[in-house]
Amino acid sequence: MLDITAISKTFHPGTPNARQALRQLSLHLEDGEFATIVGSNGAGKSTLFGAIAGSFYTDEGRILLDGTDLTFQPEHRRSRVIGRLFQDPMRGTAPHMTIEENLALAYLRASHGSPFRRITAKDRERFRSQLAQLDMGLEDRMHQPVGLLSGGQRQALTLLMATMVPPKLLLLDEHTAALDPATADKVLELTRRIVAEHRITCLMVTHNMAQALSLGNRTLMMAEGSIVLDVSGAEREGLTVNDLLERFRSGAGHALDNDRILLA
Ligand SMILES: Nc1ncnc2c1ncn2[C@@H]1O[C@H](COP(=O)(O)OP(=O)(O)OP(=O)(O)O)[C@@H](O)[C@H]1O
């Protein structure tokens, strides 16, 4: 489904602030795979997501999704087939528009409809039943502005918007890290359910090592712009968090230094 071949990205090249964030990184994901990603601070995890989503073009390498070459496709075109959630629940929704209007925009974009088409009664019914599945009472607040929702409600809505037409790829960048523990658990459970139900190919950055091993079918570890560890199947099932840290140390040549992992 996703084929990344030897992508590199340097920010501010040729200046004293030059920083190589991705180094010849290659990654292949099968259809329906769900891989978690952990890594040190500044390892390039968010940059990898930016490269895939088209926030910038890479300096070299190729990115293919479901056989289509995205390498030089603009971000707005990729957003029809790639869903992305950020740590900040305020991103990804328009606060002054109602829940219904936000859902309509997401739906029309992903279903290749005209963004100016009217919302029909049938659309409204679909939105209502999808909102009800979040179990947060949002189906009765469809005419309220999204800005009135709590962080957790807003992140759940963003998740729904990103998946109501299942994307070819879902990128989750620590999307529960800014939520309180109970809400984070709820949004994570929703994520697990929606991804499994639609068999969405998914990459999820997390600083929670236990989650990195328990969610999905594969764990990737990044250091200095490269993937230094890639485990799946029986090998992954037998791993503990300590094993993972040890494997990272031998792959990267140094201990995993991520302040959020240490705090967790
Ligand atoms: N827009 C940018 N301009 C300049 N440098 C950047 C930019 N974005 C990222 N970087 C640098 O690229 C490197 C990789 O950053 P990135 O945010 O991808 O790391 P990360 O693995 O997501 O880190 P963290 O876990 O701390 O969020 C860092 O050194 C960062 O400072």
UniProtKB/TrEMBL annotation:
One Gene Ontology cellular component: plasma membrane
Domain of life of the native organism: Bacteria
Domain ABC transporter: 2-249
Segments traversing the membrane: none
Location(s), subcellular: Cell membrane
InterPro entries documented for this protein: AAA+_ATPase (IPR003593), ABC_transporter-like_ATP-bd (IPR003439), ABC_transporter-like_CS (IPR017871), ABC_transporter_ATP-bind (IPR050166), P-loop_NTPase (IPR027417)
Membrane topology per record: Peripheral membrane protein
Gene3D superfamilies tied to this protein: P-loop containing nucleotide triphosphate hydrolases
Keywords assigned: ATP-binding, Cell membrane, Membrane, Nucleotide-binding, Transport
UniProt GO molecular function: ATP binding; ATP hydrolysis activity
Keyword Nucleotide-binding part of the UniProt annotation: yes
Protein name in the entry: ABC transporter ATP-binding protein
Origin species: Vescimonas coprocola
